[in-house]
Amino acid sequence: MKTPTASTGHRPRPGSRREDIAAAAIELFFDRGVAATRVDDILAAAGVSVGSFYHHFRDKLDLAATVYLEHLQRFQSDLLVELDRHARTEDAVRGMVVAYLRWAGADPRAMGYLHQCREPNVAEIAGGEEARLKQCFDGRLAGWLGERAATGELRALPYEHSRALWLGPAEQLVRAAIEPSGHSTTPEPDALGAHLAHAERVLADAAWDALRRPAPGDDSGQAL
Questions:
Q1: Domains of the chain, with CATH numbers?
Q2: pTM to 2 decimal places
Q3: Is 198 exposed, middle or buried (0-12, 13-18, 19+ CB in 10 A)?
Q4: Which among 25, 33, 34, 16 has a CA at the least distance from the CA of 71?
Q5: Could you read off the pLDDT of 24-69 as tens digits, one per residue?
Q6: Closest CA to 89 of 141, 154, 137
Q7: Fewer CB in a 10 Å sphere around the end CB: N or C, the chain?
Q8: Of 220, 212, 219, 221, nearest in space to 93 by CA
Q9: How far is it, in rounded angstroms, from Cα 155 to Cα 99?
Q10: Whole-angstrom Cα distance, residue 213 to residue 148?
């Protein structure tokens, strides 16, 4: 299997006032939530003027929705790049799991914001575009899975089942690491990448074992 490309597409590029504002905002939104973050807090963290802020964004909610949608689009795009770079079905299945974990490990605050950005006012603004992005992403995955099922490489399952078996465990591990419950603790930022990397092989193996069409006589444990 090819080693997944280390993605930097989701990281804000320095040197732009807009990106400085977005980078500061995602830190504050993740730590405090959107409602508890003031525009003045963002200005101070980004080192920009009021005029610069309102030149790029209508208000705080516009910024929160924009940051969410841009990171969602970059995350989905990075995963689809990983999917398309593999000729072998097994390598693509495994590579997507590894790419998911590495994306989260490289920028845990961005991934955390993607998971927890559900404040009603932000969700209302982002809702239509979020639905469109997710529909396009799911459509690509569903088409890819259907093609491989038709060739006999993968099991013919409903899309929701295949996606859950494929990316669900990685998503849950990331969510637990970034947003711990009362009986767990968040790994330190420097340790988070290693924490997720430790799971790459086992989750990639599990995804392939769950999705591949078993050879005759080798169907134990795959009945749903």
A1: 14-57 (1.10.10.60), 68-211 (1.10.357.10)
A2: 0.85
A3: exposed
A4: 25
A5: 999 999 889 999 999 999 999 999 999 999 999 999 999 999 999 9
A6: 154
A7: C
A8: 212
A9: 22
A10: 10
